[in-house]
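Budget justification aside, the reviewers requested a transparent look at the raw inputs and outputs of the sequence design task funded under Objective 1. We therefore reproduce one unedited record. The lines immediately below are the structure tokens for a 233-residue chain.
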């Protein structure tokens, strides 16, 4: 009888061990499946940094190393539109590169203070030896009853603050296959160069901001290079 009890106990113990092993295997497999699903989702979700910007009435294009706007036709305008809509990236690729925040951020100095730009500063922003610039041109805001009429203004939210504009300069460096940043400079055209002394209209009192946002410019940069080459012919 004792031998039978020992055998029964041994069988029960073996069965329990198998159940524990099965639970461990099921748990590991379930976790692995969840991780694979999470990775698939993160790979499929893409961030388009300029999706919140409406298509403008015109794109102004500045070639690298050139501060003069390049003449464009309808075909070139379409190519520029395609380029600025090809700056997206997957969340997974950004995470793997250590980037976790994809929202608009104000440009700040080394002390962390927001940088503000006077009209002369904005006028001086253009392409560089390694960066193209595209300027979004919307319908110019009008001055009505001694104030700028913002009813037709474009806007984006940056760190909880709404920024209004009818022009937007976008400076695009080559991120070379990685998720980097592009620079945005929104402004109100009517406030750039006027002699008004009215607060809210005057160029003297006007300040705007610079904005950083994550982007993968690899494809867009190549497309802009092709545009520049075509315009040079």
């Amino acid at each position: 009888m004792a031998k039978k009890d020992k055998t029964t106990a041994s069988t029960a113990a073996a069965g329990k061990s198998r159940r524990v092993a099965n639970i461990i295997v099921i748990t590991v497999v379930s976790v692995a499946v969840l991780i694979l699903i999470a990775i698939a989702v993160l790979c499929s979700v893409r961030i388009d940094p300029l999706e919140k910007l409406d298509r403008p009435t015109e794109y102004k294009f500045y070639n690298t190393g050139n501060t003069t706007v390049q003449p464009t036709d309808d075909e070139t305008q379409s190519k520029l539109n395609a380029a600025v809509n090809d700056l997206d990236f997957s969340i997974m690729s950004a995470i793997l590169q250590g980037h976790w925040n994809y929202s608009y951020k104000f440009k700040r100095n080394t002390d962390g203070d927001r940088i503000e730009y006077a009209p002369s500063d904005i006028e001086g922003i253009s392409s560089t030896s390694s960066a193209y610039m595209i300027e979004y041109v919307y319908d110019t805001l009008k001055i009505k009853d001694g104030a700028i009429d913002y009813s037709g203004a474009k806007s984006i939210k940056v760190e909880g603050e709404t920024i209004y504009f009818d022009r937007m300069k976008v400076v695009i460096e080559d991120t070379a296959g990685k998720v980097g940043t592009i620079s945005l400079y929104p402004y109100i055209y009517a406030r750039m160069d006027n002699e008004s002394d009215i607060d809210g209209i005057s160029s003297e009192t006007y300040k705007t901001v610079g904005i950083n946002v994550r982007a993968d410019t690899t494809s867009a940069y190549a497309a802009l290079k092709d545009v520049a080459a075509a315009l040079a012919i």
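The CA atoms of residues 168 and 186 lie 4 Å apart. The chain has a mean pLDDT of 88. Computational costs for records of this kind are itemized in the attached budget.
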